[in-house]
Specification:
This protein has helices at residues 6-29, 44-50, 92-125, and strands at residues 39-41, 75-77. The radius of gyration is 18 Å and the shape is elongated. The longest helix is centred in the C-terminal third of the chain and has 34 residues, at 92-125. It has a two-stranded antiparallel sheet. With 126 residues, it is mostly helical. Helix 1 packs antiparallel against helix 3 (92-125). Helices cover 52% and strands 5% of the residues.
């Protein structure tokens, strides 16, 4: 069984949350753009499961591929709730619900990392 690196997992989820929040912000910013299709990122579980195998970089000049980097996270078109006459598929209500999910996930992530850090520091102090 491999060790679980909680701080690395927390960091990866935080990067994913940043990517999702950026995608949602782009959707809201283009809410009135004719023909704009709303997008969302792939679920964190799928990204994390695909990111478990890392290539070894044996030289500092090697370029690593971080599957959770902002430009590497897959953005997909989502099924629209409704499509306006202009062809725009952004639903502001849906985007605000997703932004709330991101906020709750970030708060949970930060809380777990903080609690683990406090536990780690108390065990180190003795």
């Amino acid at each position: 069984m491999e060790p679980i690196h909680l701080f690395e997992l927390s960091s990866q989820q935080a990067r994913w949350l940043v990517a999702r929040q950026s995608t949602l912000a782009a959707n809201v910013a283009n809410a009135n753009t004719p023909g704009y299709r709303a997008a969302d990122v792939t679920p964190f579980e799928d990204v994390f499961n695909d990111a478990s195998i890392h290539m070894a970089a044996t030289d500092p000049g090697h370029i690593g591929l971080d599957p959770l980097a902002l430009d590497q996270i897959a953005v997909k078109d989502e099924s629209p709730w409704e499509i306006a006459h202009s062809g725009n598929s952004v639903s502001l209500e849906r985007e605000m619900m997703k932004a709330g999910e991101v906020n709750r996930a970030y708060s949970l992530n930060a809380g777990v990392a903080r609690a683990f850090h406090q536990m780690l520091m108390s065990s180190v102090k003795g």
